Amino acid sequence: MMKRSMAKVLGLALVLPVLATAALQQLFAQQEEASQTGLQLPAYTLTIPWAEGTHGDAMFQSAVGSTIPMSTYSFAATKNGKTYTGTLVGTSPFATTLMGSSIPVVVVPVKVTIGKTVFDPTAANSCDGGVSTLTRFSQSPLVENSSLTFNGVNVGTTQYVNGFQRAEFWTKIGGSAAYQNTLVFSNAAEVSVTETGSLYSSGCTQLGIVGYSAFANYLSSEIAALTKSGVISPTKFVIFLVKNIVQSTANPPSTSGCCILGFHTAQGSPVQTWGVMDWDTTGDFGTGVADGSISSHEIGEWMDDPLGTNPTPAWGGIGQVSGCQTNWEVGDPLSGSLMPGITLTGKTYHMQELGFFSWYFNKLGVASTGAAGKFSSNGTFAGPSKACPPGGTN
Predict the structure, then answer these.
(1) Residue 234 pLDDT more than 50?
(2) Which of 42, 195, 223, 337 is the most buried (most CB within 10 A)?
């Protein structure tokens, strides 16, 4: 994966496609030349923050059972001495008594048609052993338990993102298996949409490129429709799963202004958290993107920052971020960096390396709470983030 040449976009409302497109087109302008060279396509993710409430509102909604289980935290960061308050999914590692939480997750497969080409995540994929994307996702370490090791530390047999969070707060939780946020998955019926877009052919299969604004607004409308029909509710996290479909800010959609692999967001009140995630089997984005890496990025970010508004000291100049960010998004600084493969049911899955809490909030010389004292899940970060600008890592 190419390193991102832009800061992760914040503050974009799904109901403002013109503003969103204009902002993204400006930020993606630097990519156009690279996209036309025939080299691997650039790849990015987004966060669209909740704009209809506060952390306090979300915590009240969670407390009365009208949204997903969430917890709050407040602490003084050693990086700058400032106090940061935010919201997490499930049980907090900062709690005095550790316990487990169960969070319902609904996977909605999305069949996308561009012209005469159909991208169906429920159909057999000839580029992936004849197995469908939905089956691969359901059999992956994101859903199924596996024995997980981060930085040489075995954190137990659990789902990948829960294992990551254990590793992220390893000394904080005392290595306790009592810290357990279990995602309980179910699959909804497939939804279908015909989109204006383009096709990019390379490697094993075609890549479908659709317009960011139109697709985001379609998914937002599906949230409303699925809620009305009782398929989903704010008490469940919703994953729209697509196969080899990415988004572009260009009009018409093309490799210019491309490629958004997924995003997570929240809307409404009570707050509904949801995301869209591509399952890539094209190889068009180089060796840093494969099968479940995008989903691990987005689910990991949702767990640590479900509203997209958890603040941090400024960091950046690394991963997919060239400027400075001030939010706790654990995937961005390591986009394109994969963990060692995890083999389940005869398939080796690729999860993305993610940044630990201490990377964002610690000053140099303060020990990480992460497994083996590292600052990321595969040890790429041996020290905390540097102040941004210029950014980077110690």
Answers:
(1) yes
(2) 42
In a domain, 284, yes or no: yes
Report the pLDDT value the prediction gives residue 203, as an integer from 0 to 100: 65
Beta strands 258-267 and 272-279, pairing class: antiparallel
What backbone phi and psi angles, to 5 degrees, belong to 344? -135, 140
Is the pLDDT at 331 greater than 80, yes or no?
Answer: yes
Provide the number of structural domains found in the chain: 1
Whether residue 214 contacts residue 249, with contact meaning beta carbons closer than 8 Å, is answered with: no
| pLDDT tens digit sequence for 42-54 | 999 999 999 999 9
Which is nearest to 243 in space by CA: 336, 327, 123, 354? 123
In a domain, 383, yes or no: no
Residue 323 lies in a domain: yes
**Cα-to-chain-centroid distance, residue 312:** 17
pTM of the full structure: 0.92
Classify residue 359: in a domain, yes or no: yes
Which position has the token pair 């993710």?
A: 45
Q: Which residue has the tokens 């429920």?
A: 122
For residue 358, give the amino acid letter: S
Sign, Cα dihedral of 30, 2, 160, 71? negative
pLDDT in tens, 304-322: 999 999 999 999 999 999 9
pLDDT in tens, 102-133: 999 999 999 999 999 999 999 999 999 999 99
Provide the token pair at 71: 């917890």
Which DSSP string corresponds to 329-370? Answer: -SSGGGTT-BPPPEEETTEEE-PBP-B-HHHHHPPTTSPPSS
Structural domain boundaries, residue 273: 17-373
Pairing of strands 191-194, 100-114: parallel
Number of residues that make up the chain: 394
